Amino acid sequence: MPNHKEIRQLLADPASIDWFRQALRSALERDPVDAAQDAYLLSIVLAWHSRAVVADALTSQAIRDASRR
To answer: How far apart are CA 17 and CA 23, in angstroms?
Structure first.
């Protein structure tokens, strides 16, 4: 679990993408329990979305491959 110093390092790290740094800054200004619950829900939604996108891509590729035979 990151401590305050590590959180500051994440916020200052130019390798961290802007979206992440902005989301982290925003979350740190909120009630920590609410922010953690919202982050958990967001992770579930994004995981579901990424699986759906990959499944669609694999289905499309399978259809293209099948049509070439």
So the answer is: 10
Rounded Cα gap, residues 46 and 28, in angstroms: 20
Whole-structure pTM value: 0.75
Per-domain residue ranges of the chain: 1-30, 31-69
Q: What is the pLDDT of residues 21-58, one digit of tens each?
A: 999 999 999 999 999 999 999 999 999 999 999 999 99
The two three-digit tokens of residue 36, written as one number: 């953690």
Q: How far apart are the first and last CA of the chain?
A: 52
Name the residue with tokens 């800054």.
25
Which tokens hold the place of 57?
């891509």
